[in-house]
């Protein structure tokens, strides 16, 4: 899934680069707050682990094999902030040291494979385990493993979906967006299943040996017991995982997505590129789609005035993100509330 | 080439890639110029062609994808050797292939002429977040250690008759992955202790200075400069 | 006895999970001594070592290095004075090249420039690894890595060198070379090991840590000659190896 140079046009590459940089800046700060002066060695070792695990091929179906992306796994094992850093560093190293993934596509690759998989994976994980996590014992453990499976199974197609979205914004290939979505989605649902299986089993095997190392299972530890004259009194352990952990990611991610969608589609739409020109010259404008966007930095938009069409394109982008966020958030809160009801009932 | 300060080379490679990506795909001649520029760099740096070709294998999956674009692409179609291909699809395939290939070769040349350690020092000089550079430094240091552990686990599995045939073997692989994570994490903790024992207080000491002279910057700017000029020229011509 | 390098008084420690590892350790090591700390697995050896440079904080009792107590405000100086060599050199050599790794400690102490370079070279010279100065640690053999690990702490000019299982995983030649290096160093050495012949070879005096307390303290030779004592603390000499008390 490593995107090479030239696959996306410049506005999308730059936009994704800015998004990736902003995301990583946030994660650097938050990871440091969590890991303190241990950040560099711990994240470095986990990144090396992710790199190694990505080489672990597992058979998907007859004859074909896949490998882990590791975003969801990393999020559950070491927490979302550190996970984004680790996977991003893996991608950076792959681009610069192994020529895997284009230098100009680094932003796209980090956005898709480090940020989207991790954030989506972690969100799904917290959604599933939100209430179950507080209980120690086998039920909590089942929730963590099930959450890991769901997180990974969703995270991979989510990244594929975002890829399709970026492709719609600034892909350089004249392929129907719907067929890209179908192809990417289909393949990645399969890959996601493999990813989910390995992720869940890996988390479960770490849980069995060192449950304290699973970030996503921090609430799982049995309470400490004080032996007093009145018998044994269980005491609360200091809360390890801040409960507000998810909201900043969702809010921040949403805002940035909104901004990005607005700005990028504002610039991207209606800027004719070579392909459009060829198509127009040959009278094939009928097939023109908003996806066929400028693949040059000066693709028309600095010369011509800002047309209404472009403005509306930008607004459409913002509206699209807002709708998605609203829809997703709605589902999220409904499920959370229902789970909370179950617990109190 | 090998002795240029890494920060110069890093910036040069990135700027070159940007220039390539920004070039309109109709300018065949521009891509020819880029290829010649890279060939010049390869010769100057004495990087043998077979070495570059071998490492270009990394590109293969996307080549396959690029080949598929004209087949499934939209728009006007032409018959080539009896296969109906999309014209915009052919353009797109050419675009992706040319730019991706040039990008890959530039990265390979960068990696071939720059030791990993120097690359990281260069990144630090370029004011990338130091913490990020440090994470990458630790990752590169321990990558071999961890890959080695993974290899030993695989040998241990296989010497007891394990063959990963289908999905039912996933639990075994996952157990290895889990064990690998625990070992990596615990090593991270031990490394941290080792750092503390030698006076680490949260800041990595800056041990090596790597100044780049104006002349070196000038030399490094040659490649992206020519590439940028080519890109600008190709835009003004179309 | 001349000046004291290390003084541990009634040190007790329990891990956060409640497991108590040390139950009142008392020991004193004079400057220039080479002492072996022997003990079976789980005796608390590593826990004790972690107290010597303040990675763990004493639950009870105290640790003093050349008269300076281990406390929060003395940690920096303590970590300069106590050079800890970890069991796995891969844990200790975390920098990309040998040069940077050896420089890490003194650089943290504020040493820079030509002086830093000189310290690095001196330290590598003392362990016979100067020619490896620009190599990445993972390209070295295990024995070489352990020697570089010793150099990384020597560069900090420590008061006392603490080695955790220095002979583990070494082939006989590397083992002998390391012994020669350790003997040539003019520093106090505390060597944590269950390699009894190695202790005999290098250390005049030995301590036996067992069950979280010092169970014996005396000349290495007479301790190793006392079969009952060894058996009581799960220590064994290798097959065919016998030590007479004289």
Please supply descriptive tags for the structure shown above.
heterotrimer, B: mainly alpha, 2 domains, C: 246 residues, alpha/beta, Rossmann fold, 6-stranded mixed beta sheet, 10 helices, 10 strands
Shape of chain A: globular
| CATH architectural designation of chain C | 3-Layer(aba) Sandwich
Report the average pLDDT across residues of chain C.
Answer: 90
Strand content of chain A: 5-15%
Report the β-strand fraction of chain C as a percent range.
Answer: 25-35%
Largest interface: A-B, 87 and 93 residues
Termini gap of chain C: 23 Å
Q: How would you characterize the overall build of this protein?
A:
- Helices cover 66% and strands 6% of the residues of chain A.
- With 345 residues, chain A is mainly alpha-helical.
- Chain A has a two-stranded antiparallel sheet. In chain A, strands 3-4 form a two-stranded antiparallel sheet.
- Chain B has 238 residues and is mainly alpha-helical.
- Chain B folds into two domains: 6-121 and 210-237, no CATH class; 128-197, no CATH class.
- Chain B contains nine helices and two strands.
- Chain B is flat and about 65 Å long.
- The two termini of chain B are 34 Å apart.
- In chain C, strand 7 (160-164), helix 7 (172-184) and strand 8 form a beta-alpha-beta unit.
- The two termini of chain C are 23 Å apart.
- In chain C, strands 6-7-8-3-9-10 form a six-stranded mixed sheet, with helices on both faces. In chain C, strands 2-1-4-5 form a four-stranded antiparallel sheet, covered by helices on one side.
- The chains are: A mainly alpha (345), B mainly alpha (238), C alpha/beta (246).
- Chains in contact: A-B, B-C.
- Chains A and B meet through helix 1, helix 2, strand 1, helix 4 and helix 7 of A and helix 1, helix 4, helix 5, helix 7 and helix 8 of B.
What is the structure about, briefly put?
The complex is a heterotrimer of chains A (345), B (238) and C (246). Chain A has 345 residues and is mainly alpha-helical.
Helices and strands, with pairings:
The complex is a heterotrimer of chains A (345), B (238) and C (246).
Chain A: H1 10-35, H2 39-54, E1 57-61, E2 64-67, H3 71-78, H4 80-98, H5 106-129, H6 138-170, H7 177-209, E3 224-228, E4 231-235, H8 246-268, H9 274-281, H10 308-344
Antiparallel strand pairs in A: 1-2, 3-4
Chain B: H1 6-21, H2 28-44, H3 49-55, H4 60-72, E1 77-80, E2 83-86, H5 87-113, H6 116-125, H7 130-158, H8 170-197, H9 214-237
Antiparallel strand pairs in B: 1-2
Chain C: E1 4-14, E2 20-30, E3 34-38, H1 45-52, E4 60-65, E5 68-69, H2 75-81, E6 82-85, H3 89-92, H4 98-108, H5 113-126, H6 142-154, E7 160-164, H7 172-184, E8 188-193, H8 196-202, E9 205-210, E10 213-219, H9 220-225, H10 227-232
Parallel strand pairs in C: 3-8, 3-9, 6-7, 7-8
Antiparallel strand pairs in C: 1-2, 1-4, 4-5, 9-10
């Amino acid at each position: 899934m490593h995107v090479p140079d030239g696959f996306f046009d410049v506005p999308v590459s730059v936009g994704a680069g800015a998004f990736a940089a902003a995301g990583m800046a946030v994660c650097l700060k938050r990871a440091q707050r969590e890991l303190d002066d241990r950040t560099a060695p711990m994240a470095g070792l986990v990144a090396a682990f992710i790199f190694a695990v990505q080489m672990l091929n597992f058979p998907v179906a007859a004859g074909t094999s896949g490998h882990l992306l590791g975003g969801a796994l990393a999020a559950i094992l070491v927490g979302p902030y550190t996970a984004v850093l680790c996977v991003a560093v893996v991608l950076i190293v792959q681009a610069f040291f192994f020529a895997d993934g284009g230098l100009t596509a680094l932003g796209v690759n980090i956005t898709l494979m480090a940020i989207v998989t991790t954030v989506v994976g972690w969100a799904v994980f917290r959604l599933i385990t939100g209430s179950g996590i507080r209980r120690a014992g086998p039920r909590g453990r089942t929730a963590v493993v099930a959450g890991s499976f769901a997180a990974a199974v969703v995270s991979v197609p989510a990244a594929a979906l975002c890829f399709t979205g970026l492709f719609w914004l600034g892909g350089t290939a004249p392929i129907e967006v719907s067929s890209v979505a179908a192809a990417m989605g289909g393949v990645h649902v399969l890959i996601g299943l493999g990813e989910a299986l390995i992720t869940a089993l890996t988390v479960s095997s770490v849980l069995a040996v060192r449950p304290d190392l699973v970030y996503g299972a921090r609430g799982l530890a049995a309470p400490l017991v004080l032996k007093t004259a009145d018998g044994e009194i269980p005491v609360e352990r200091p809360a390890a995982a801040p409960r507000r952990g998810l909201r900043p990611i969702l809010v921040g991610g949403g805002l940035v997505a909104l901004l990005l969608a607005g700005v990028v589609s504002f610039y991207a739409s209606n800027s004719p590129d070579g392909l459009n020109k060829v198509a127009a010259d040959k009278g094939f404008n009928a097939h023109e789609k908003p996806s066929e966007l400028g693949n040059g930095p000066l693709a028309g938009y600095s010369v011509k005035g800002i047309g209404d069409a472009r403005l509306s394109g930008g607004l459409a982008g913002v509206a699209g993100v807002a709708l998605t966020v609203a829809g997703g958030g709605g589902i999220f809160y409904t499920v959370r509330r229902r789970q909370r009801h179950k617990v109190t009932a | 080439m090998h002795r240029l300060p890494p920060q110069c080379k890093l910036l040069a490679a990135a700027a070159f890639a940007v220039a390539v990506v920004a070039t309109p795909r109709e300018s065949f001649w521009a891509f020819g110029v880029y290829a010649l520029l890279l060939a010049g760099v390869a010769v100057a740096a004495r990087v043998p062609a077979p070495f570059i070709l071998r490492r270009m294998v990394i590109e293969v999956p996307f080549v396959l994808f690029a080949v598929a674009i004209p087949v499934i692409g939209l728009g006007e179609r032409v018959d080539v050797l009896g296969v109906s291909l999309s014209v915009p699809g052919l353009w797109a395939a050419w675009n992706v292939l040319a730019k991706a290939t040039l990008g890959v070769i530039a990265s390979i040349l960068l990696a071939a002429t720059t030791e990993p350690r120097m690359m990281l020092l260069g990144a630090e000089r370029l004011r990338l977040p130091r913490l990020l550079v440090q994470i990458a430094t630790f990752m590169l240091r321990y990558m071999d250690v961890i890959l080695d552990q993974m290899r030993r686990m695989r040998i241990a599995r296989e010497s007891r008759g394990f063959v990963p045939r289908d999905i039912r073997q996933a639990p075994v692989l996952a157990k290895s992955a889990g064990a690998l994570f625990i070992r990596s994490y615990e090593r991270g903790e031990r490394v941290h202790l080792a750092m503390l024992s030698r006076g680490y207080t949260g800041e990595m000491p800056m041990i090596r200075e790597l100044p780049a002279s104006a002349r070196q910057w000038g030399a490094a700017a040659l490649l992206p400069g020519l590439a940028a000029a080519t890109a600008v020229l190709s835009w003004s011509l179309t | 006895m001349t000046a004291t390098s290390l003084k541990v008084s009634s040190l007790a420690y329990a891990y956060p999970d409640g497991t108590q590892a040390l139950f009142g350790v008392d020991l004193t090591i004079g400057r220039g001594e080479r002492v072996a700390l022997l003990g079976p697995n789980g005796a608390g050896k590593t826990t004790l070592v972690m107290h010597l440079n303040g990675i763990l904080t004493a639950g009870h009792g105290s640790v003093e290095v050349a008269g300076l107590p281990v406390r929060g405000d003395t940690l920096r100086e303590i970590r300069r004075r106590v050079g800890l060599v970890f069991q796995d050199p891969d844990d200790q050599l975390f920098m990309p090249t040998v040069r940077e790794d050896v420089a890490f400690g003194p650089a943290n102490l504020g040493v820079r420039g030509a002086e830093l370079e000189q310290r690095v070279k001196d330290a590598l010279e003392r362990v016979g690894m100067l020619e490896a100065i620009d190599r990445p640690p993972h390209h070295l053999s295990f024995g070489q890595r352990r020697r570089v690990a010793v150099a990384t702490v020597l560069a900090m000019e420590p008061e006392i060198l603490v080695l955790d299982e220095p002979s583990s995983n070494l082939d006989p030649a590397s083992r002998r070379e390391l012994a020669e290096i350790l003997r040539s160093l003019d520093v106090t050495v505390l060597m944590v090991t269950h390699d009894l012949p190695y202790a005999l070879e290098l250390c005049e005096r030995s301590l036996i840590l067992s069950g979280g307390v010092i169970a014996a303290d005396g000349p290495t030779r007479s301790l190793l000659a006392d079969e009952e004592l060894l058996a009581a603390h799960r220590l064994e000499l290798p097959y065919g190896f016998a030590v007479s008390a004289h």
